[in-house]
Amino acid sequence: MSRELPLRCQCGHVRGVAHGVVPSAGLRFICYCDDCQTFARFLGRADILDPAGGTDILHMPPAHVTLATGAEALRALRLSEKGVIRWYSACCRTPIANTADSARFPVIGLIHCFMDHEADGRSRDAALGPPFCRIFERSAVAPLRPMAVPSPLEVFVRRGAKVLSWWLRGLARPSPFFTAGAGAPRADPRVLTKDERSAL
After folding, report:
1. Mean confidence (pLDDT) of the chain
2. Is-contact 75 90, C-beta < 8 A?
């Protein structure tokens, strides 16, 4: 049965709901890439990373996420000119999600610390299912626990099938991160300079 998962930033100013959340609906993974770790350091939020530097992310369609309050506090960051857009709250610097730079792409990467599992009464594993895979493990900053790892082909096929399904069903829009008309980002992404990124 589909469930709604409450969303909130750390201070509660930005709030919303993820709709239709069941373990089979999205694609949960742990990302250990340098960029995700840099994003956490930029926000001063190393607490969102697991002990090995991983970020828990759920890929789901944009149309299944709505923001009820605090949209004016959305801020956007790009670590390079062509990097993904990384969204966070200006009020308490909670990382919210990652998106492509186009409102037509039917995927957002919802970040775990924006999900209010306590209010929903479920654990993260119960709500989202266990992580399907880990990516960029070579960038982990500590040893990782053994885990059954799907092949790269399995990851590609499963993600590709979901993206295609969401695209065919028109679930790229509406998106809480892009305007309804022009499809422009709701906040102009700040692009870090090479020096700023090196400092992080």
Report:
1. 92
2. yes
